[in-house]
Each structure stands twice: as C-alpha cells, then as structure tokens.
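Report of the visiting student (M.T.), summer placement. My assignment was to run the structure pipeline on a short list of targets and document each run. The first record concerns Undecaprenyl-diphosphatase.
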Amino acid sequence: MPMWEGSQADELALDIALHVGSLGAILLYFWRDLAQLFVGLADAVRLKGTAASRMLVLLVSATLPILVVGFLIKDVVTFMLRSAEIIAWTTIIFGLLLYVADRRPEREDDIGQMNFRQVIVIGLAQCLALIPGVSRSGIAMTAGRIVGLDRQLSARFALLLSLPTIAGAGLLGTIDLYRAGDARLTGEALMGGFLAFIAAWIAVVLLMNWLKRFSYTPFVFYRLALGFFLLVLIYGFGWSPGS
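After the run finished, the structure tokens were exported:
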C-alpha cells in the first residue's frame, strides 16, 4: 500500500477535522430537528405515518437528486467547467438569482407545511452545486425562497440537507487517510476541527438570528463583490488559480 508524504496526510487529516467540526456545529444547533429525524426513522420502520416520519421522507427526497446526478456526472461537470471565469460568473449570476428569489412572498414557515413539489424543486436545484462556484447551501436557500419558504425555513432546510454531504465528505476523507497508511489526527487537525466548530456555530447562529428580521441581501452583495473582484483579477491582471 503506497504511503503518502507527511504533508499530504496532515492536509487530509485537517480537511477531515474541518468537516467534522462544521458537522458538529450544525448537529448541535439543530439538535431538536435531529431528534425528530431519529423519531421519524423509528416511525418509518414501524410504517407509522407521523409528522416526524414525513420530515425524514422530505429530507431524503430532497437529497436523492444530487446523489444520483452527482454519481453520474460530477467528474465530467467539474472537469469541463472548472475555471476561474466560470467560478466568477456563477458567483455573480446565482447571487442575482438569490436577490430575485428573496423578493417572493413568504408562505410556509415550518417543515411540516412543505409539500413534495417544493422538496423536489429544492433537491433538483442542489444539483446545480456540482457546477464550480455554485454554493450548495446557497442554491438550496434560493430554491427554498422560490417555492415560498420563509427565510428562516429556507436556511434551516438547506443546512439540514448539508448534513449528509458533510458527513459523507468526512467519511470519504477518513477512508482515504486510512488507505494512505496514516490514520493519525495531528494536533493541528484537532485544533482546526475545534476552530471550524466554533466558526460554524457562530455563523449558523448569526445567520438564523439575522433572518428573523432581515433579508438575504447582504449575502447577495457579498457574492456580487466577490464575483466582480475575481473578474477584475482575471481580465484585468491575467490571474488564474495556480499561476
């Protein structure tokens, strides 16, 4: 079995720690939803149609499209579209789309009020995140607003949908590290995981509190500013990643 260089193993260990830290923060913040999902799983096994089992089915239904599409075309899409220009333009375009979506009326404010049409739209929209520069959580929030979810619910549902993705990325990274023959987590990785947990916790708390009273507009401005900054670097100074 080939051994990786120490720096590569350390980078992978740090990447795993960052995923685990972010996952821990989301799990802690949404612990009530997580408890409901476990109840829903137990109810589903017993073929009981409850609010908890319906919540579980909605989340699974929204997750399936990106799993299928990602398995089929992820490598093709990321290989063909991975460029600085694509990332800059998608950052701008999907920032504008979020602004337009956020102008729509808010109807549903609870997962129990959601229907399968809304869930499928959000699930299909997540597939766009396979294109470099498209944020998975951002496009899920945008789709949530398009189908009428209020701002808090669109963010809550998007973050709950991130749990399988983050957990899967962390698991795959752990498997890669194990296959590399170096399963240790360094002190730097543990510190990185802790800092990722704190940063993710603060970000989620600030986001959910902000959306109680305000809109997604600051995030739109952020994406536009970042996108135009990248375009200036690319077209004005000939910059490209790795150059």
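The radius of gyration is 19 Å. DSSP finds nine helices and no strands in the chain. I thank the supervising group for their guidance throughout the placement.
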